Amino acid sequence: MTLRFIAKDPNTNGDNCPTVWVDDETKDLVIQGWKADEGTEQECLKTGSIPDTEAVVRLPARMVAAIREACDAADGSAVR
């Protein structure tokens, strides 16, 4: 597995902050974010269960550009 680093949250100190990567082999997005609070999880549960193997994470809106960049890298539309 090779993870391509895309970006960290630009408004943090660089440690323990939301981060986005792309797995170059599978093209999966790998996202580190804040654990969702109970209220957020309850809203998500209205759509379906959250298996023990999954988690709800929250990323700040300021990371939208990084997520778009990761999506472009994953689908091959990003120019290297």
- Share of β-strand residues: 15-25%
Query: How many β-strands, per DSSP?
Result: 5
Topology order in helix (H) and strand (E) letters = EEEEHEH
Cα distance, first to last residue?
19 Å
Rounded to an integer, what's the Rg over CA atoms? 14 Å
Strand order of the largest sheet: 1-2-3
Q: Share of helix among residues? A: 25-40%
Tally of helical runs:
2
Look at the helices and sheets and give the structural class: alpha+beta
Low-pLDDT segments, ≥5 res: none
* Mean pLDDT across all amino acids: 90
Describe the structure.
- This protein is α+β, with helices and mostly antiparallel strands and 80 residues long.
- 25% of the residues lie in helices and 24% in strands.
- The chain has helices spanning 38-45, 64-75; strands spanning 3-8, 19-23, 29-32, 34-35, 57-58.
- The protein has a 3-stranded antiparallel β-sheet, covered by helices on one side. It has a two-stranded antiparallel sheet with strand order 4-5.
- The two termini are 19 Å apart.
